[in-house]
């Protein structure tokens, strides 16, 4: 049994998380400036896989919003020191083939899809690092725009029983790439991480955060895609367990929780229902936790984009009126395209000079940094998602 700081507290926290669907209250954050020294036992390895939300689009510039979380604001202290610098763990490491550069080093911020982004790996890794005395290694294998029904389709699922519309696609390519990258890391562990030289490793868990592109499948096949989502995932887990010889590998699945629970579209409701069925599969009974992420969404992610759009619309109306007045009596006045070009050219300057718009923009940019499909680029959300994954994984590890 791995050593923990307060076993009873962690068990209670995991029960709360599963009962409410919300990331549970964990132990006090402690001093971010002094992470514990890793032990010398087997390196504890976790595979993090999926598409763009596993890559991570939480803007580092929005991370201070985590401190404003009503119950888990103290988690920010595990990431950011009082002097504004960011923690670099000496007991948790990340292997991530991000583009051409690749990451092979201590866990810290900037290890999301880009250098200015974070993903669920940050708080998940911190949670696992705090849980284990041994070193922790996260292997992240994620690519934007990939689905389960084709890209990640595992070998044991066989070929789709339906024809996929559009250009021919290579079935299972992302699944094979995921397995290949995990082997590349583990088979040369001493080379990638010299500090692990001579130490064994233990594959301890698999975390899956994916689904958007299955929701966006062509209407001709969409219902079939959603109907088989849970079974395809079972096959994926079974194939991974067989490949790495871990028959009861613990598995955590993250719901696609974009837009929260207030304004759920029919498409999103269909995807979430398909994902939730994973937790009912008897093949994974006792080894899987399904984590809702919709509760991580919070009102500012809806309110601030609307507020900024409203302010921009107000300035645009004013600029449009000015442009129309300036063009009055000229040939361009009769050409809507010419008018729009003139408005667009003047709008940027007008927005930069409008105090009320700039005030709202500062407020907006403190919270929002990317598209809605990426949880508005909220680092707070990605941290809470990673925290929820860690709490769920802890419960599975304690039950082994």
How does this model look, in words?
The protein has 13 helices and nine strands. Helix 1 packs across helix 13. Strand 8, helix 9 and strand 9 form a beta-alpha-beta unit. The chain is an alpha/beta fold and 400 residues long. Helices cover 41% and strands 11% of the residues. The protein has two domains: 313 residues, SGNH hydrolase (Rossmann fold, 3-Layer(aba) Sandwich), CATH 3.40.50; 64 residues, no CATH class. It has a seven-stranded mixed beta sheet with strand order 4-3-6-1-7-8-9, sandwiched between helices. Strands 2-5 form a two-stranded antiparallel ribbon.
Topology:
Elements: H1 7-20, E1 43-50, H2 52-55, E2 58-59, E3 92-96, E4 103-106, E5 117-118, H3 121-131, E6 136-142, H4 173-187, H5 189-192, E7 201-209, H6 212-215, H7 222-227, H8 229-244, E8 251-254, H9 266-276, E9 288-291, H10 300-327, H11 336-353, H12 355-365, H13 379-399
Parallel strand pairs: 1-6, 1-7, 3-6, 7-8, 8-9
Antiparallel strand pairs: 2-5, 3-4
Order of helices and strands: HEHEEEEHEHHEHHHEHEHHHH
Q: Based on helices, strands and strand pairing, what is the structural class? A: alpha/beta
By CATH reckoning, the class of the largest domain would read Alpha Beta
Instruction: Count the domains.
Output: 2
State the separation between the terminal residues, measured CA to CA. 8 Å
Question: TL;DR of this structure?
Answer:
With 400 residues, the chain is of the alpha/beta class. It is 41% helix and 11% strand.
For this entry, give a set of tags.
2 domains, about 400 residues, 7-stranded mixed beta sheet, Rossmann fold, two-stranded antiparallel sheet, alpha/beta, globular
């Amino acid at each position: 049994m791995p050593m923990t700081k307060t076993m009873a507290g962690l068990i209670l926290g995991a029960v709360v998380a599963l009962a409410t669907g919300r990331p549970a209250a964990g132990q006090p954050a402690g001093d971010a400036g002094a992470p514990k020294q890793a032990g010398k036992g087997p390196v504890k390895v976790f595979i993090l896989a999926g598409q763009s939300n596993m890559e991570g689009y939480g803007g580092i510039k929005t991370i201070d919003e985590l401190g404003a979380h009503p119950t888990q604001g103290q988690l920010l202290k595990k990431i950011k020191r009082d002097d504004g610098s960011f923690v670099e763990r000496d007991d948790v490491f990340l292997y991530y083939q991000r583009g051409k550069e690749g990451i092979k080093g201590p866990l810290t911020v900037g290890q999301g899809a880009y250098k200015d982004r974070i993903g669920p790996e940050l708080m998940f890794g911190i949670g696992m690092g705090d849980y284990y005395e041994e070193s922790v290694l996260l292997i992240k294998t994620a690519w934007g725009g990939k689905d389960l029904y084709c890209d990640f389709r595992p070998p044991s699922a066989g070929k789709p029983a339906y024809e996929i519309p559009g250009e021919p696609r290579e079935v299972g390519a992302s699944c094979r790439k995921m397995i290949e990258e995990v082997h590349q890391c583990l088979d040369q562990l001493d080379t990638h991480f010299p500090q692990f030289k001579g130490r064994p490793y233990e594959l301890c868990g698999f975390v899956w955060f994916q689904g958007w592109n299955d929701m966006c499948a062509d209407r001709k096949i969409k219902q079939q895609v959603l109907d088989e989502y849970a079974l395809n995932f079972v096959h994926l887990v079974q194939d991974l367990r067989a490949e790495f010889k871990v028959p009861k590998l613990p598995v955590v699945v993250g719901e696609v929780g974009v837009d929260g629970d207030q304004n759920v579209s029919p498409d999103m409701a269909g995807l979430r229902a398909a994902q939730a069925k994973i937790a009912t599969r008897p093949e994974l009974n006792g080894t899987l936790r399904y984590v809702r992420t919709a509760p991580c969404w919070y009102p500012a992610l809806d309110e601030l984009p609307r507020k900024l759009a409203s302010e921009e619309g107000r300035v645009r109306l004013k600029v449009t009126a000015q442009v129309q007045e300036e063009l009055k009596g000229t040939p361009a006045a009769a050409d809507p395209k010419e008018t729009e070009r003139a408005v667009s050219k003047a709008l940027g300057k007008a927005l930069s000079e409008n105090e009320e718009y700039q005030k709202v923009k500062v407020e907006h940019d403190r919270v929002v940094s990317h598209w809605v499909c990426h949880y508005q680029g909220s680092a707070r959300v990605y941290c809470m998602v990673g925290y929820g994954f860690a709490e769920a994984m802890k419960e599975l590890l304690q039950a082994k």
